[in-house]
Automatic annotation (TrEMBL):
Lineage: Bacteria, Bacillati, Actinomycetota, Actinomycetes, Mycobacteriales
Name recorded for this polypeptide: RDD domain-containing protein
Gene Ontology CC annotations of this record: plasma membrane
Compartment(s): Cell membrane
Keyword line: Cell membrane, Membrane, Transmembrane, Transmembrane helix
Superkingdom in the source lineage: Bacteria
Membrane topology, from the record: Multi-pass membrane protein
Residue intervals passing through the bilayer: 27-47, 59-79, 116-134, 163-188
Predominant location category: membrane
Length: 327
């Protein structure tokens, strides 16, 4: 937001009567100086606060915000103190300049004080910004505190307008770039993780219920359906478990999840989510030998190439406890 201004110009004759700047010109200059940089600064601060703690993204967005703040200070304080006209980008565009009450050019310290004093203009319900509309010398509260006034001077050259236009265009492009990078770096991965978490939270319990449940009169079909819910890496282990059940003889086995929670350790990724499930069920074909079951399992879900979630592993944390009906 800084630019090299033409320093070959000289100040107008201080003895001549110089008209005071109008309120619209002052408002326009302030908008050019503050709003573009403030927009980029706000976006970076927001991205830094929402980025994962300690991540590279948080540090990058914080650094960008700091650089933008320094450029804004340079435009509003350093550049006016170091150029003949005392212009900022906005003042150059609207042809106004800040002077001391005696007509001299303010220095770095007075300009810094004036910028800080603008907080009084803002905190007082913006009354200070509107004060020039009825003040005889068209001063804000900051002008009164810093003993400054704003005057109208000659319009800037076409070259200066091009410089200001290029600076504003660069600021707009930077804002768009920051938003795009922020979305691609922070929000898109976060949304992908949230989506994975929500999908497994909704589908996972039902998948485990279907994988562990079967009936004596449809055991083959139920086992085949269960194998379709697993990854290739876990399928062989499931097949061995099914063969052991088949050798024990046909029976009904029904499970349902009574509670479930997506785990954060191991961390959730776009293609892998862990879930803890509290299961209840019943086993047996007759009411007399029916057994009620409770178990706690940890299940690893993996997303396959077709975008569907599959059971990648199932670990029994609490061995099934069986109670015979009537006990």
């Amino acid at each position: 937001m800084t630019a090299v201004l033409n320093t070959s110009e000289v100040l107008p004759d201080q003895s001549a009567e110089v008209p005071l700047a109008s309120w619209p010109a002052r408002a326009g200059a302030l908008a050019v100086d503050i709003l573009p940089g403030l927009g980029v600064l706000s976006v970076n601060v927001l991205l830094a606060l929402t980025a994962p703690f300690g991540s590279a993204a948080r540090w990058v967005f914080t650094a960008v915000a700091a650089v933008v703040f320094v450029l804004m200070v340079a435009n509003r304080v350093v550049m006016p103190a170091s150029t003949v006209r005392g212009w900022t980008l906005g003042r150059a565009l609207f042809g106004i300049e800040v002077r001391c009450a005696d007509g001299s050019r303010p220095g770095l310290g007075r300009l810094a004080l004036r910028e800080l004093a603008h907080l009084l203009d803002t905190f007082g319900l913006f009354i200070g910004w509107l004060w020039p509309l009825w003040d005889r010398r068209r001063r804000t509260f900051a002008d009164m505190l810093a003993s400054t006034q704003v005057y109208r001077v000659s319009r800037p050259s076409p070259e200066m307008r091009r410089i200001v236009g290029a600076a504003l265009a660069g600021t707009a492009a930077a804002a768009v770039l920051v938003v795009a990078v922020g979305y691609a770096w922070v929000y898109w991965p976060a949304q992908a993780l949230d989506s994975a978490r929500q999908q497994v939270a909704a589908q996972g319990p039902r998948m485990v219920e279907q994988m562990l449940s079967f009936r004596a009169d449809s055991m083959d079909e139920d086992f085949a359906r269960a194998r379709e819910l697993t990854t290739e890496g876990y399928r062989d282990q499931l097949v061995k478990q099914q063969e052991s059940v088949r050798e024990a003889g046909p029976t009904n086995n029904e499970y349902w999840a009574v509670n479930s929670a997506v785990l954060t350790d191991p961390p959730v990724t776009e293609n892998r989510v862990s879930m803890l499930l509290a299961m209840q069920g019943q086993r047996g074909t007759n009411a007399e030998d029916m057994k009620f079951i409770t178990a706690t399992v940890q299940v690893e879900f993996e997303k396959s190439e077709d975008g569907q979630w599959r059971v990648g592993n199932l670990t029994v944390l609490k061995k099934p406890m069986m109670n015979t009906a009537g006990q």
